[in-house]
């Protein structure tokens, strides 16, 4: 008996022999109504996030009299937010590992500047420039990660320093001037669209349309397959009506958006890059040992260490990864502006971090999903875009975004406490 | 003479667990009253009741102080009467000065503005009383443990103390400092101050105590008066440990095989104080099918020994040899130790053993992810199957394995930890306080599981502060004290008296090595 465990109420605290399973009727898998209710409750966070994204979209669609989902605007929406989404993928891992990276905006700006110097001044080709910039990002991540992982200097401090250092270096590199334009190949990175092989169908770009349908179909197929696999192994799955409803919604939304985008200029290249990265990072975080270990490190470093996980190396690698993605974000942004400016990347870190927290990541580490971070980034993007169309000034835009961030996290904390 | 304090028929329950039942004792004016008992006998709980940490109403029984029944709502209300407790872990703020620490709750001054001059003068006065000659502006962190202890006492004096309670005050002091501290207590006694001294060290107790009350399993089992002659140590030990052992441990016939793991000449030094040797040239071995217990008081070095063995998770300058199946093995990192066939079930389940927010299945697979993954990709179905299998075998009571580990009861959490380590398929399991904070029924299950592990040919090492537990389940018991093994008993041979005697006889004059402080664990784990 150890005294410190026995604080008053300690034994009535969470779940002392409260296995809720053999619990209230109506919750057994047999009754489908109860099962559905329970399933929704257990996954409230995931559904809630998705539903609020759709709700915010619909709200602005109505308020802007349909401007939001015009093909041109939708395409712009993707282009405007792609770099935030890309960086949010890296930030999610950093946050899940229990850290933070404040330097991503500066690093993005700095790599954009490096790209401009290489391409505009030194006339390097597209491939060399891109690879050099990504390597630069990796190196920066390694430099910061080294202090954080092996010297145990708080990431907040190291990356705050990095934020200043790379903002300054970008300024120095560009001599305070904007540098551009980039070669046309490079611009295609963010303003290009996938090539069209098929004849146009009316005003639709058929390749893009088909690709959209194919992706939607593939997602439905994948969830159907994992559902049957789970069922074959007697693992509880979503109740059928919920499953059907969700898949119809996902498929419908993807195909609808694909139709809209296909009717403008087709799928932007950057959307393809983004989709691939989202796929890869979802897989890595949810299905691989390295992903599992990152969650373990963020959830309880000491327990992870006593389980044989090399926690330092893992922390180091998440920062290297963050550096590479920040560099990629910087390249996409530079390509979109078609110049590198000393101001590039300013404040990106705030949007990226906000995206992760809106998406349900925990500031204490160990909790968060790639899907959530992406939805968080899209919510931020939708709000930026929608409010701009509505003519709300940048001043109140920031106020509202701040309140949404606070509100989202409050709801999350409240839900967790209740659970 | 009327007693200054009387605690009458105190009983305290934590949910289903009875911590104290019917404890009575009294302190007379100008008396040093010692409280003894094993770890978990209820000493700290009793003192927390007295000081108001557990408020009136949360326990049964009555506290009479100065002839009046008292109901303390919190620490402040007991301190107002001059009942001051000094805990084993000192409550000083390292980066504040001595003077600021002494007056931390009641600085002299007006309107919230501190009168520094008065504070300094008064602090110097109080410090002189306890024999400190430092400048009151010295930062506490710059003082050694012994002097910090004195600062605590000065702090108590500044509050007009009438009853001073010291919880293991000499646990981390050397002989000279301990002696000085005890002399100080005797000096206070001469001035009429009453004190309660909680200590494991019978030699100290018999030196200063007027009376000794022994607690066992939450009861006061006897008070020995030693004003007319020194107390008999054997009598104290008998009172401390004597109890019924039947039916609390599953019957078991060991099948002991060949020597599995041997540790030779193992030495470990303290991570923060590099001149302090925590483990001193220790030899140890465990055989297949054998359950070996390591007995000892808190701070004897048991956890430090186990953690240093398990991938150098504790300590610095570690030296020694480890062999498994007669072959030398490398245990220099946790993953190597796991690969060599070692598993360590930590004493601190919540902080070091589990990911409380994580699902049961993820906790079970964490130390052996390769077992459920192919090329780094996790087979979720396999993971689930394995977790369900362990849930059934270990009888973890939860509706499914997707439940967060933090929602389970202590006993079930421990079963998750055991599952996790069994999944690594270890040859030798070290279980550190495997039943701490677990209720009686679940303890029985854990004992049975340990015996099953041994029967499957593994070697089990059980570290426990509960001696009856060791006597109940171990085939052999090694006694550790001050970083050495000081006795070894077979199952037939071992008794609590013998173990206690081995510890007390081997306690050298300097009494160092506090229990593993959490900051040291942090340091060792690099966080």
TrEMBL record, chain A:
Please give, as recorded in its UniProt entry, the membrane topology of this protein: Multi-pass membrane protein
- Where this protein primarily resides, as one coarse class? membrane
* Location of this chain's protein in the cell: Cell membrane
Write down the superkingdom of origin. Answer: Bacteria
| UniProt cross-references to InterPro entries, sorted A to Z | ABC_transp_permease
Q: Which residues form a coiled coil?
A: none
What UniProt keywords apply to this chain's record, in alphabetical order?
Answer: Cell inner membrane, Cell membrane, Membrane, Sugar transport, Transmembrane, Transmembrane helix, Transport
Q: Where are the transmembrane segments?
A: 47-65, 77-95, 126-149, 156-182, 202-222, 243-261, 267-284, 314-334, 346-367, 374-393
What segment(s) does the record annotate as region Disordered?
1-34
| UniProt biased composition (Polar residues) | 22-31
Function comment: Part of the binding-protein-dependent transport system for D-xylose. Probably responsible for the translocation of the substrate across the membrane.
Recorded protein name is Xylose transport system permease protein XylH
Automatic annotation (TrEMBL), chain B:
Q: Which domain of life is it from?
A: Bacteria
Looking at the Swiss-Prot or TrEMBL record, what is one Pfam family this protein matches?
A: ABC_tran
Keyword annotations of the record:
ATP-binding, Cell membrane, Membrane, Nucleotide-binding, Repeat, Sugar transport, Translocase, Transport
Report the InterPro entries cross-referenced here: AAA+_ATPase (IPR003593), ABC_carbohydrate_import_ATPase (IPR050107), ABC_transporter-like_ATP-bd (IPR003439), ABC_transporter-like_CS (IPR017871), L-arabinose_ABC_transporter (IPR053466), P-loop_NTPase (IPR027417)
Q: Please state every residue range assigned to the domain named ABC transporter.
A: 5-242, 263-507
First and last residue of the signal peptide: none
The residues that cross the membrane are none
Molecular function (GO) terms listed? ATP binding
Under Gene3D superfamilies, the record lists: P-loop containing nucleotide triphosphate hydrolases
The cross-references to NCBIfam families, in alphabetical order and at most eight, read: GguA
**PANTHER family of this UniProt entry?**
CARBOHYDRATE TRANSPORT ATP-BINDING PROTEIN MG119-RELATED, XYLOSE IMPORT ATP-BINDING PROTEIN XYLG
State the name under which the record lists this protein: Sugar ABC transporter ATP-binding protein
User: Mind giving the lineage of the organism this protein is from?
Assistant: Bacteria, Pseudomonadati, Pseudomonadota, Alphaproteobacteria, Acetobacterales
């Amino acid at each position: 008996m150890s005294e410190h465990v026995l604080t008053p109420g300690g034994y009535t605290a969470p779940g002392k022999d409260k296995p809720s399973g053999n619990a209230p009727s109506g919750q057994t898998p047999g009754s489908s109504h109860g099962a559905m209710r329970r399933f929704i409750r257990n996954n409230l966070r995931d559904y809630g996030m998705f539903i609020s994204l759709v709700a915010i979209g619909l709200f602005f669609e109505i308020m802007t009299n349909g401007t939001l989902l015009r093909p041109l605007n939708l395409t712009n929406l993707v282009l405007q937010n792609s770099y935030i989404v890309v960086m949010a993928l890296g930030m999610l891992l950093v946050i899940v590992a229990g850290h933070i990276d404040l330097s991503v905006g500066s690093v993005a700006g700095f790599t954009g500047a490096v790209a401009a110097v290489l391409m505009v001044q030194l006339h390097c080709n597209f491939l060399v420039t891109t690879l050099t910039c990504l390597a630069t990002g990796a190196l920066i991540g390694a430099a910061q990660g080294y202090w954080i992982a092996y010297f145990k200097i708080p990431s907040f401090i190291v990356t705050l320093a990095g934020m200043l250092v790379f903002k300054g270096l970008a300024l120095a590199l560009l001599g305070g001037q904007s540098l551009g334009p980039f070669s046309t190949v490079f611009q295609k990175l963010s303003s290009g669209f996938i090539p069209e092989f098929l004849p146009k169908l009316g005003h639709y770009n058929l390749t893009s349309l088909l690709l959209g349908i194919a992706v939607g179909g593939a997602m439905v197929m994948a969830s159907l397959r994992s559902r049957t696999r789970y069922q074959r192994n007697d693992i509880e799955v979503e109740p059928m009506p919920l499953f059907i409803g969700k898949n119809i919604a996902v498929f419908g939304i993807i195909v609808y958006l694909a139709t809209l985008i296909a009717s403008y200029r087709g799928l932007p290249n950057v959307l393809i890059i983004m989709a691939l990265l989202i796929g890869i990072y979802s897989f890595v975080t949810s299905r691989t040992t390295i992903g599992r270990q990152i969650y373990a490190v963020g959830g309880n470093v000491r327990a992870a260490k006593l389980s044989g996980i090399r926690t330092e190396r893992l922390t180091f690698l998440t920062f290297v990864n963050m550096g590479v993605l920040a560099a990629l974000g910087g390249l996409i942004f530079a390509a979109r502006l078609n110049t590198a400016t000393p101001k590039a990347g300013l404040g990106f870190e705030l949007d990226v971090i906000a995206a992760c927290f809106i998406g349900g990541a925990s500031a204490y580490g160990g909790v968060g999903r790639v899907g959530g971070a992406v939805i968080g980034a899209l919510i931020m993007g939708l709000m930026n875009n929608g409010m701009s169309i509505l003519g709300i000034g940048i001043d109140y835009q920031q106020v509202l975004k701040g309140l949404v961030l606070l509100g989202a996290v409050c709801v999350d904390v409240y839900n967790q406490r209740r659970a | 003479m009327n007693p200054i304090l009387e605690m009458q028929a105190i009983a305290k329950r934590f949910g289903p667990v009875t911590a104290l039942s019917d404890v009575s004792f009294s302190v007379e004016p100008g008396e040093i009253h010692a409280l003894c008992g094993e770890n978990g006998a209820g000493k700290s709980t009793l003192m927390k009741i007295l000081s108001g940490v557990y408020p009136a109403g949360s326990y049964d029984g009555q506290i009479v102080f100065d002839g009046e029944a008292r109901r303390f709502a919190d620490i402040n209300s007991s301190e107002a009467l001059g009942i001051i407790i000094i805990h084993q872990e000192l409550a000083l703020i390292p980066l504040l000065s001595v003077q600021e620490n002494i007056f931390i709750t009641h600085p002299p001054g007006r309107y919230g503005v501190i009168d520094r001059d008065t504070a300094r003068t008064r602090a110097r006065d109080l410090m002189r009383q306890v024999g400190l000659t430092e400048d009151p502006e010295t930062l506490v962190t710059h003082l050694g443990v012994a002097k910090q202890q004195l600062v605590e006492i000065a702090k108590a004096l500044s509050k007009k103390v009438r009853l001073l309670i010291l919880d293991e005050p000499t646990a981390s002091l050397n002989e000279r400092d301990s002696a000085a501290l005890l002399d100080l207590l005797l000096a206070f006694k001469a001035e009429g101050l009453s004190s309660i001294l909680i200590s494991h060290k019978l030699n100290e107790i018999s030196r200063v105590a007027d009376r000794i009350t022994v607690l066992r399993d939450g009861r006061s089992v006897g008070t020995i008066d030693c004003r007319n002659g020194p107390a008999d140590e054997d009598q104290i030990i008998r009172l401390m440990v004597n109890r019924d052992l039947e039916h609390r441990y599953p019957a078991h016939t060991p099948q002991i095989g060949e020597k599995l793991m041997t540790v030779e000449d193992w030495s470990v030094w303290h991570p923060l104080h590099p001149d302090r040797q925590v483990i001193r040239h220790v030899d140890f071995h465990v055989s297949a099918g054998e359950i070996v217990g390591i007995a000892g008081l808190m701070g004897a070095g048991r956890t430090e020994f186990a953690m240093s063995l398990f991938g150098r998770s504790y300590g610095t300058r570690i030296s020694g040899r480890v062999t498994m199946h007669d072959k030398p093995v490398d245990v220099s990192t946790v993953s190597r130790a796991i690969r060599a066939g070692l598993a360590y079930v930590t004493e601190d389940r919540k902080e070091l053993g589990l990911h409380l927010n994580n699902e049961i299945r993820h906790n079970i697979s964490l130390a052996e992810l390769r077992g459920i993954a192919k090329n780094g990709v996790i087979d979720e179905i396999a993971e689930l199957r394995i977790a369900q299998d362990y849930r059934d075998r270990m009888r973890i009571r939860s509706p499914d394995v997707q439940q967060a580990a933090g929602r389970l009861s202590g006993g079930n959490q421990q079963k998750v930890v055991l599952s996790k380590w069994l999944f690594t398929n270890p040859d030798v399991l070290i279980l550190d306080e495997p039943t701490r904070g677990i209720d009686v029924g679940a303890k029985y299950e854990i004992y049975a599981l340990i015996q099953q592990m041994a029967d499957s040919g593994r070697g089990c090492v059980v570290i426990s502060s509960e001696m009856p537990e060791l006597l109940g389940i171990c085939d052999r018991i090694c006694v550790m004290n001050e970083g050495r093994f000081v006795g070894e008993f077979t199952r037939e041979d071992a008794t609590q008296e013998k173990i206690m005697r081995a510890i007390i006889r081997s306690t050298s004059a300097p009494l160092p090595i506090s229990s593993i402080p959490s900051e040291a664990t942090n340091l060792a784990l690099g966080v």
